[in-house]
Design a protein that fits this description.
With 145 residues, this protein is mainly beta. The chain has one helix at 8-22, and strands at residues 29-34, 37-42, 65-69, 74-77, 93-94, 99-105, 108-113, 118-123, 129-131, 136-142. It has two domains: 8-42, no CATH class; 65-142, OB fold (Dihydrolipoamide Acetyltransferase, E2P) (Beta Barrel). The protein is elongated, with a radius of gyration of 17 Å.
Length: 145
Amino acid sequence: MPEGNADPLDAAVRSLARLIGSTPGPVRRARLQHGDLVVEVEWPDGAPGMAAVPPVPPVEADAGLHYVCAPMVATLYLAPSPGADPFVREGDQVVPGQQVAILEAMKMMIPVEADRAGEVVKVLVPNATPVEYGERLIALAVSEG
C-alpha cells in the first residue's frame, strides 16, 4: 500500500514498534487504540527474557570497540528480506542512524540503527537468531571526530 494511503492502524502499530525499539530498557506494558479496537500487552516484572542484561565489563581485546546492542527481546535479521544483501558487512563504514539490522517481535519489525560512526569489525549474531535485551549484535571500531 503506498505510504500516503497507509492504513491508520498499520501506521499506529509501526509507530508503537519504533517507540518500543527506542526505549532504553525493557517494556513492561504497551497499549494501542484505534477507534473501538484496543490492543494491550503487559509483561510481568519477572517475565523470562525481559530483565535487563547487566553490562559486560570490557576486556583488553575490546579496547576501542563499540557495540550495537539489541534494544529488546526479538529475532534478529541481518537483511531486509530473505535472500537480500545484508544491511552491513564486516569492513563497511556506518554513520549514526544508519540501519544495520532489523528485529522482529510480535510480528512487528523494528529497525536497529548504528548509534556511532565507525567500521563494522564483526557481526556477532547469525541471521534469524533470537536475541536478548542488551545483547551485543555488531562490533564497531569507532571513527575519530
